[in-house]
């Protein structure tokens, strides 16, 4: 049986749906909804008790060969925002924008202050930044559920002051390369290519967007969901982009994220899921299911606009995608410069 035959698209994923439609969610009971979803969609033990890759295990050699065959034009798109002091961060939980400092400059070289022989000079620099201040992956050690990390491990034994001792982001440096799929929900579902803040993207929305693009989503895919939120921030200013209201995935898409067997998902928003969240007095409940229970690699603040324009023009929404995080040993997240190659 071929890999394509075994994959499950949005229309066939998890036919026995556990979570209700978004309108039927009990806004007063996030705890109950999280517990229900965690039990229904857990991948604990699926790849063995020592696993450190989670859903990235869905990307195998055959999947990468399939992805390489998608390159037709040789055009590449960086899906990364800039890393500079003009970024969206406002200091929440000590997240700041990058600080770039020069250690050696052309001025030093021209003045002969560097002490090198025979006229050679150079420049050198350093960057200080939180690892999740711009385009990045959330690693498997980033979110816990009631003190449990990915694969049921004790969070206290996984992430300490020394870093993530088990599922550090460095493990993702090699395997995150495969078939990328763009689901431009902003273009298909919104006005002028953008969704409004608070718009909860459901499984049905994802299905409709994939159908509109003529693309299937399945096992091992890296799915990029464009909402248009970044385009609006660039037009109107950062405002509340970092942590404020935004369109995003509904909590009820946990069934699709699990059943479609995708390897990873990334959005052009700060927090991946819809904000405000769909429960009262809740904070990022879909993260609480997706990362520690499904083992899903989540990308945030990706720049999908140029790629989306090209996909809309040529009608092809699949491509080779390489998205290796910076392999910072023990980190629970890391910057990434994803490259989509068509």
TrEMBL record:
<dbReference type="Pfam" id="PF04199">
    <property type="entry name" value="Cyclase"/>
</dbReference>
<dbReference type="InterPro" id="IPR037175">
    <property type="entry name" value="KFase_sf"/>
</dbReference>
<dbReference type="GO" id="GO:0004061">
    <property type="term" value="F:arylformamidase activity"/>
</dbReference>
<dbReference type="GO" id="GO:0019441">
    <property type="term" value="P:L-tryptophan catabolic process to kynurenine"/>
</dbReference>
<dbReference type="InterPro" id="IPR007325">
    <property type="entry name" value="KFase/CYL"/>
</dbReference>
<feature type="region of interest" description="Disordered">
    <location>
        <begin position="1"/>
        <end position="28"/>
    </location>
</feature>
<protein>
    <submittedName>
        <fullName>Kynurenine formamidase</fullName>
    </submittedName>
</protein>
């Amino acid at each position: 049986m071929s890999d394509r035959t075994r994959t499950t698209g949005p229309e066939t994923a998890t036919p026995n749906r556990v979570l209700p439609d978004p309108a039927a969610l009990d806004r007063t009971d996030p705890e109950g909804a999280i517990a229900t979803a965690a039990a229904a969609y857990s991948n604990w033990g699926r790849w063995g008790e020592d696993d450190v890759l989670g859903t990235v295990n869905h990307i195998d050699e055959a999947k990468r060969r399939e992805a390489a065959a998608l390159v037709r034009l040789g055009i590449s798109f960086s899906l990364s925002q800039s890393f500079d002091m003009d970024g969206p961060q406002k200091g929440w939980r000590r997240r700041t924008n990058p600080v770039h400092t020069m250690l050696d400059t052309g001025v030093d070289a021209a003045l002969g202050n560097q002490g090198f022989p025979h006229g050679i000079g150079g420049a050198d620099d350093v960057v200080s930044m939180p690892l999740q201040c711009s385009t990045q992956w959330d690693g498997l050690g980033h979110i816990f559920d009631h003190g449990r990390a990915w694969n049921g491990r004790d969070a206290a034994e996984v992430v300490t002051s020394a870093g993530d001792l088990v599922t550090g982001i460095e493990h993702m440096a090699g395997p995150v390369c495969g078939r990328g799929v763009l689901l431009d929900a902003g273009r298909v579902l919104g006005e002028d290519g953008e969704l409004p803040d608070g718009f909860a993207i459901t499984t049905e929305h994802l299905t409709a967007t994939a159908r509109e693009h003529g693309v299937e989503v399945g096992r091992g895919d890296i799915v990029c969901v464009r909402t248009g939120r970044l385009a609006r921030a660039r037009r109107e200013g950062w405002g509340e982009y970092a942590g404020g209201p935004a369109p995003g995935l509904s909590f009820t898409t946990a069934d699709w994220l699990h059943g479609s067997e995708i390897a990873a998902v990334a959005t052009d928003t700060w927090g991946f899921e819809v904000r405000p969240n769909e429960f009262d007095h809740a904070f990022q409940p879909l993260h609480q299911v997706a990362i520690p229970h499904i083992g899903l690699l989540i990308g945030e603040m990706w720049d999908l606009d140029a790629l989306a324009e090209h996909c809309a023009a040529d009608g092809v929404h699949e491509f080779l995608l390489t998205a290796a995080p910076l392999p910072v040993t023990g980190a629970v997240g890391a910057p990434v410069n994803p490259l989509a190659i068509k």
